[in-house]
Amino acid sequence: MIVNKISRNRRKISLYILLSFVTFLVMLPFLWMLLLSIKTNSEIFRMPLSIPDRLSFDNFRRALNTLDFLQLYKNTFLIVIMTMAIELTITFLSSFVLARMVFENPKIKSMIYGFLIIGLTISPFILLFPVYKINTIIGLKEQAGLIFPYVASSISFNTLLFVGYMKSLPSEIDEAAVIDGCSLRQLILQVIVPMSKPVIATVVIFNVLYIWNEFPFASIILQDSTNYTLSLGASFFKGKYNIDYAGIIASSVMMIIPQLLFYGLFQKNIVDGMTAGAIKG
Amino acid sequence: MKKRILAIISATTMVVSMLTGCSESQKEDYASENKKVAITLGMHVANVEEQEPVTADIIKAFEAANPDIVVEVKGNDKDEHVKKMKMAAQADELPDIFWMDASVAPELNEAGLLLDLNGFLKEYSEIGDALADNMKEASQAEDGAQYGLPYQSLVTGIWYNKALFEKCGLELPVNGTTFEELENMVKVFNENGITPIAQGAKDTYSIWAFLIAIERYGYFDKIDTILAGNEKFNNTEFLKFFEKLQILGRDGAFPSNAATMTYFQAKEAFLAEKTAMFDSGMWDAGELDKTMGVNTGFWWGPTFSDSDSPQTVKMKVSSAPLCVSKAVGEDKIKQEAVYKFLAFYYGEEAAKISYEGSIIPSTNYQVEVDLSEKPAFAAIVEALNAETWISPKAQPDLVLKEAVQAQLYDSIYGTMLGNYTPEEALDKIDIVLDQQ
Amino acid sequence: MYWLSKKRYIVLMLIPTLLIYIVYMIAPIIVAVGYSFTKYSGIGNAKFIGLNNYIRLLGDSTFMLSLKNTMVIFVVIFIFLMVGAFSVALLLNNKLKFNGTAKALIFSPAIIAPIIVGIIWVFILDPEVGLINSIMNEIGLEKHTQLWIGGDKLTPYCVAFIYLWQQLGYVATIFIAGLKMIPEEVMEAAKVDGANAWQKVRYVTIPMIRSTISTAAILIITGTFKIFEVVQQLTNGGPNHVSETLVTYSYATTFSNGEYGYGMSMATITFIISLMITAIYSFFAREKVE
């Protein structure tokens, strides 16, 4: 018995060591970046390993002077809110149909599902040119021109997660609801949506981060620099003949920290959301 | 049922019109506000104030002189900008005036998207006189249309660190210093643990000094025949030139990590006095004055004894052009404002602002500027004064289409880094040329 | 449920998604594929040239090289990310203190913009100013320093490693989600039967989370063929195109070289390859389940 306990403790300790090691390895690049962010451009290139003599926040000051972070965050969140409102509504409804409603011909259902999933394989760079043209035809530009491409590129991922999750909910719920005299609208709003909170949280987290980080579409469609989103910020440090690497790194740090906080707030939901969502994929 | 769909549609259009609303209201402002004309300027840097301060100053001075005109600057870094302009061209949304890659501008012109500036040059004849012929010809179509005017002068060459030359007991390079002498410098610098020439291959276009050198093998004598398909890039003269690149690479003229270096890192290496020479141009003069000051020298690069072509080549040519959107021509008020802006941009006052900011404008006004505080810039101005040295009509890469241009860069760096033999490198250009 | 499944409800609820998806995803793909049969610089009019772009691809050594690099990246990522993320998931599935913190930290690289990821890693891998070679020089391993990026061999592996770093926590989270679904009793039963740790994983865990594995696999496959920013930041495909991948090469051709039609033919091939691998994988994964 005692031997067993010792060996169990030993196992536990080695697991701790392993876990700390993996975590440290993953975090190392961030620590390196933090170190770089307080060095000057020439220190970065001349003495990469050195610890700077004194703590200097010049890079951060320069980043704050160059970028209007308030405006960038405001622009980004405006697009995030519009996009999320549209995409959550429409993809939740369409996924509900695919997960729980009865089709006369079930083949059509799986065909639509497959069709909506194909989008996962598309690199956004293929779409830049055509999307720009389509925007022109419809007459959308600036922020309005970004929302629909973002919604479209979220559809595949959302469908994958929503449909998987909703399929995992027991079918008795619907029957009970129908017997209680629920309408379809009541069923969705009062039963399914509350039960799907974890997967909705997961979808929100991933899509918000996607828009936060998205570069290719934003760089093409946003013409006016007052509409720029966060991810375009780095381009302000790049001239034709000069780049301020230290400035880019410092501003990246300033973009990452709020992201980490946002993620930290919601991360508990991610596993729950994935749990059912990912299983039936 | 139908009602509901209608409701959805009208809700969507409301959202959409809310979002597009702002741009429409701007147009109304433009009409109602008495005569205040807005012109848009599309630039190749995101942050004009910081990265093109001279242009920013010129715009400020222009707006001060023309209170009825507002210049709205829109910028992106170069690659994004070119991509964006191509797309805007599809949608008829080009800015009124915009910077354009010299290899793309002709295509925009062929597609009928650019305004012929001959009208402008006629109206403001003094501007036409202030621009040298090779500056104007750089953006002329075969039918004589003037589809752009040079943004600035493109002056390129090799910066060198006088102190390092002296430390190694080497003579400073001057006009006429030969390739053999350069080989010797490379040898001596390597013996002293100094990298001879800073080059960053990750930015493939950063081969300016070598584009001067290729003209010393008769580039512009041959290029028309080559482009017409009657001659190859792989010819005896160009081969000699590429063999020189191979020799330099083999002798260790470039940093050991040139392949992963960007042009910006190459510059850092030179500023850190880790390298003796630096392939670059006029745009770095300001920065060099701040860091290296009187230690900075400027050189047009080596001459070659095995070439049949003239060796007295310098490089002051048209940089990429500023183009004007065709749509401007349809709006008389706007066209007038654009003309006023161009007249100011290519005028004497702007030239003075330019020189003060260590940028050589495309015009050739004689302006009084105090250069005593600017030794690096003074070095380049002095080099330009070598009267017997002649500039070609353009920088060699700028007369090629984008794909050929990219292959020329790739081939030059490939040979320097030892990835291609000279023949291979030249054949690659011929292959791409065939596909155009 | 049948009673509520009226056709008009179904149609009404599907239409907004399908409409946006078709207009902003499917139509652009069709347009892009259409351009792959033309010669088009991105300006003016496209000229139809049939299959010429595709024929040209066959003789394009850079294209073949970028195909090879992409496959190297894909294979390395697929094997190591599946195994690595699964192991991390098993590790995190133990009831240890600080588990939540570790999980969050390991996941965090997945939330950062790929461009920033690229910038961070340039300063780690760069042969001259990067962290790795600097440390090796410092501790007397000068002889073993490598051209991690910018040489002619290692770049694809480094790209794969960076993706591994970025996605490890993400894929592990998917696996953890699957592991959570295995009923406690099953594991207990295996223990009673005297199964050791490896046998439990091999004969209980893996079969029970098969569908989770296939979701993870599909996300990895499709993700790998979209890697772009990291390569662009590390080497930009160079030197002399030796580290080019399908996406970076088609991007350079399309946007830097102004050969839109030719670039789109590469993009089309990339799309087809990624679709095919996904389809083949799904096919075999399904076979096994039955």
Structure, described:
The complex is a heterotrimer of chains A (281), B (436) and C (290). Chain A has 281 residues and is mainly alpha-helical. Chain A folds into two domains: 2-37; 59-279, MetI-like fold (Orthogonal Bundle), CATH 1.10.3720.10. Chain A has twelve helices and no strands. Chain A has helices at 2-37, 41-46, 58-66, 69-100, 106-117, 124-138, 142-168, 172-179, 184-195, 197-213, 216-221, 245-279. Chain A starts with a helix and ends with a helix. Chain B is α/β, with parallel strands linked by helices. Chain B folds into two domains: 34-152 and 319-356, 3-Layer(aba) Sandwich (D-Maltodextrin-Binding Protein, domain 2); 155-317 and 374-435, 3-Layer(aba) Sandwich (D-Maltodextrin-Binding Protein, domain 2). The longest helix of chain B has 31 residues, at 2-32. Chain B is globular, with a radius of gyration of 24 Å. Chain C is built from 13 helices and two strands. Chain C has a two-stranded antiparallel ribbon with strand order 1-2. The longest helix of chain C has 32 residues, at 61-92. In chain C, a hairpin with a 7-residue loop joins strand 1 and strand 2. Chain C has 290 residues and is mostly helical. Chain C has a single domain (55-289), classed as Orthogonal Bundle (MetI-like fold), CATH 1.10.3720.10. The model of chain C has no long low-confidence stretch (mean pLDDT 85). At the A-C interface, helix 1, helix 4, helix 6, helix 7 and helix 8 of A face helix 1, helix 3, helix 4, helix 5 and helix 6 of C. Chain C: Belongs to the binding-protein-dependent transport system permease family. Chain C: The chain crosses the membrane at residues 12-37, 71-92, 104-124, 162-182, 203-225, 260-284. Chain C: Its main location: membrane. Chain C: It comes from Anaerobium acetethylicum. Chain C: It is a multi-pass membrane protein. Chain B: Keywords: Cell membrane, Lipoprotein, Membrane, Palmitate, Signal.
Low-confidence stretches of chain B: 1-32
At the first level of CATH, what is the class of the largest domain in chain A? Mainly Alpha
Gyration radius of chain B (Cα, Å) is 24 Å
Largest interface: A-C, 93 and 93 residues
- Architecture of the largest domain in chain B in CATH? 3-Layer(aba) Sandwich
Gap between N and C termini of chain A, in Å? 44 Å
Superfamily at the CATH H level of the largest domain in chain A? MetI-like
| Second CATH tier, the architecture of the largest domain in chain A | Orthogonal Bundle
Which range best describes the helical content of chain B: under 10%, 10-25%, 25-40%, 40-55%, 55-70% or over 70%? 40-55%
* Share of helix of chain A, binned: over 70%
Can you tell me the CATH class of the largest domain in chain B? Answer: Alpha Beta
